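Batch manifest, entry 17 of 40.
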Amino acid sequence: MFKSVTENQRYHHAEVVQIGMENEKMQRELQNFGIDFYKMHRLYRRSLQT
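Output type: structure tokens
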């Protein structure tokens, strides 16, 4: 993704919304852009007992 975006001059800005902590590949890709993550989303699971 980094190569595609940096070689193409039509991209000027982008928004990134809700990238999960477990998605390590996407986290690394976005860090290559120099993105400063200010909020991390985590998903917790717990079984409900009735």
